[in-house]
Amino acid sequence: MVSLSDSSPSVRKQKSAPLSQSPNIVISLEIRMANLGDIRDLSEILVDSFYSHRGLMFWIHPLLRLGISEDLRTRLKSAAPHYSCLTAIAMIDIPSAQKQDTAGVVEMTVRSNYQTTKAKESGGKVGEFSDYLYLSNLAVSQSYRRQGIARRLLLSCEPLALKWGYQDIYLHVLDDNEGAKQLYLNLGYNIDRIESYPNHWIVPRPNRLLLRKTLV
């Protein structure tokens, strides 16, 4: 990442099995720190992943991309010691050329919030604030979904967490997102608590699940 402090660890290049079965294309995957030059591609992936393309939403996509781009720029330039944005780069080798695509993204940061279940189990006071490591904005480009990229991004966060001195990683998932839930559970995440939206009986919305994975 362009503006990361020296204390931020680097992520090694990782090569996977070919993501395409075409005999003319060989794809490997690199997980690295995002930089300012990645912002346009990352904001496009995030908008496509989290916002509908239907009706009015289609027309406001440019504004959403702009807002996400500026938010990413601010975070990347902040040089916060406990913030990382990882991006997955699909390297495509073609006999006549070479191409790379931005395939996915995940952000990791330290947050302060009301105590987690683990803090309570350790004897913390109810309502006491505690820091915890949190993952957000995990998204994969539509062209590269169902090829294990989200899994690779999640696993790449774990050595960073340990480097920062955190043994637990937290993230949220909607209760009705069965695909994402299965991915997290398969990677060792467990439900820390179930959170209902305010006034959910007026406007029905699925519960949010706060998941936790203990690394050691």
How would you characterize the overall build of this protein?
The protein has helices at residues 39-50, 56-59, 61-77, 117-121, 149-163, 178-186; strands at residues 26-33, 83-94, 97-114, 129-140, 168-174, 190-195, 208-214. It is an alpha+beta fold. The two termini are 27 Å apart.
What are the SSEs and their pairings?
Blueprint: E1 26-33, H1 39-50, H2 56-59, H3 61-77, E2 83-94, E3 97-114, H4 117-121, E4 129-140, H5 149-163, E5 168-174, H6 178-186, E6 190-195, E7 208-214
Parallel strand pairs: 4-5
Antiparallel strand pairs: 1-2, 2-3, 3-4, 5-7, 6-7
Helix pairs in contact: 1-3
Features of the shown structure:
32% strand, single chain, 216 residues, seven-stranded mixed β-sheet, alpha+beta, 6 helices
Number of strands: 7
Order of helices and strands: EHHHEEHEHEHEE
Query: What gross morphology would you assign?
Result: globular
- Give the structural class: alpha+beta
Strand content: 25-35%
Quaternary structure state of the chains depicted: single chain
- Uncertain segments are 1-26
Give the proportion of residues in helices.
Answer: 25-40%
| Major sheet strand order | 1-2-3-4-5-7-6
Distance between the termini: 27 Å
Number of helices: 6
The main pleated sheet reads as: 7 strands, mixed
* Overall average pLDDT: 81
Radius of gyration: 18 Å
Short description:
With 216 residues, the protein is an alpha+beta fold. The chain is built from six helices and seven strands. Helix content is 29%, strand content 32%.
